[in-house]
Amino acid sequence: MKKKILATTLALSMAIATMGSAMSVYAADASSDSNTLKLVLSTNDGSTTDDRVPTPWMNHNLATSLMFRSLLIADSSLQETGPDLAESVDMSEDGLTYTITLKDGLKWSDGEAITADDVIWSINMVQEATRKNSIYSAAFGNITELTSDGNVITMVLSTPYAQMKDILAQFSILPKHCLENEDGESVDSCSYWTNPVTSGYYMVGEFNVGNYFTLVPNPNYEGTAPKIQNVTVSFVSDFLTAAQSGSADFLYGNASDLVDGMASLDNYTSIPVDVLFYKYFIFNMKGIDGKENEAMQSVDVRKALIECIDRATLATLYPNATVLNSGVPNSDEAYNGFEYTFDAEQGKADLEASGYDMSRTLKICYYNNDQTSIDLINTIVYYLEQAGLTVEATLSNDGTTDLFTTRDYDIGFKGLSSFSLNEWYAEYMSNSATFANIFGGDTQFDEAVSALSAATTQEDRDAALNTLQTLEQENLYKVPLFTVGNYVYLSDNVELPEGVEFCNPLYTCDIDYVDWNVK
Q1: C-alpha angle 465/466/468, rounded to 5°?
Q2: 3-state secondary structure string across 179-205
Q3: What pLDDT does residue 46 have?
């Protein structure tokens, strides 16, 4: 309790009020519409802009999950799969060859056939795309052959990938005929996303740029139509304000201000969801383009900076946070027992001894503008200032661009709602489309990451994780602070069928949506 009071006091004492508490909400007035589900998309973290539908190749949300389908669909554990666009996905005994058979008669919302060419183009294109989830790079980077014969696709890997079917249940197939002329830099931001051709329950009806878009039934969806006929998706800057104004029937999050605020609304049900949601630091060191940040090159500097910050106190800012010391949670049997220590005086001494230029301004970049994140950043600034540093913290409006392309910072504060431990470690891969820009394309993690991906036994998994923990703790390319639990919130307007279980809200799973009702 003392630590939480300290963190809150520190944060409040650092002129949080200057950040402003008022946040605008742009929401369609669907309160008078019957049979309409009201969804919201947040524009406060740089992953979503209010002029287009967000690409499902980055993160899923309920809206994109209702529009775009994958080859398979997962259950709430995200580890058991069943048919979706594919009627079957069969793996050879050696784990190297996958035979994917598409269902017959599938159509896009514009009436064009969904074909093997769409699948092959999508898998190839996501590897070129700039904005994407790293799980796709890690999985599809092992493909050596991808061919089709009619509606049967053959995918051959160079090495087994234990989670391949799970990944295929997350990867949305997009229409080649609409996007084949786009390149990796523009595939997520081209005009297609204002009126996308879809494969799921719905397609876009009206798009009001800067405010909302509506979803209407897809006439070419071949399965059972959902009971809900209309969906309104509003772009908002703050989930809590959207809930308070009655603009959201479904939302999720883990920030303390959201959790506390939602607890006071008696017309919402809170559903805890067990997810692997990391909050962590990344260091801007050097890119594969040759651009280096000289100040962060020394591992001694990076270690000293971490010594100066009390991660346990930072964790108290969140309602359900667990401090950790690697990508492997402390409760996992593979955890190696290493702990980062907080020692402000020793950290200051080590920083001075490292040769770091104490006269320069240390820059922090972050992209979440919820009050909890602002409090956390201000507390970090306080700790580093106590070590004798001048610190400048900047809120980014486009986290991906500023962290991995512009790169005008020393420490980045980031979140990762991880599919699995593999996703955390895939960020170290030398071929990562984003992290290679700050880690320099270092290859020393590649072999162990590949071993983890191919592991089919507990012994092999633990051995790979032990190697990876040693590498990350020796190099300090990124440093985990803690994991945070997540919550799904449903308004009383929504009636769920019996037995629905939610998965990580940034992924997609079978939630029996066709039997949802709204009052």
Answers
A1: 60
A2: HCCCCCCCCCCCHHHHCCCCCCCEEEE
A3: 66
The confidence score (pLDDT) of residue 21 equals 36
Alpha helices in 264-364 (DSSP H): 299-307, 311-315, 344-353
Spell 266-302 as b/e; 16+ CB within 10 A means b: eebeeeebebbbbbbbbbbbbbeeeeebebbeeeebb
Pairing label, strands 81-83, 86-91: unpaired
Give strand pairing partners of 271: 488
* pTM across the whole model: 0.84
Least confident piece of the model among 210-214, 419-423, 491-495: 419-423
SS3 sequence, 423-466? HHHHCCCCCCCCCHHHHCCCCCCHHHHHHHHHCCCHHHHHHHHH
- 337 phi, psi to nearest 5 deg: 90, -5
Does the pLDDT value for residue 405 go beyond 70? Answer: yes
At residue 26, the pLDDT reads 44
Maximum alpha-carbon separation in the chain:
68
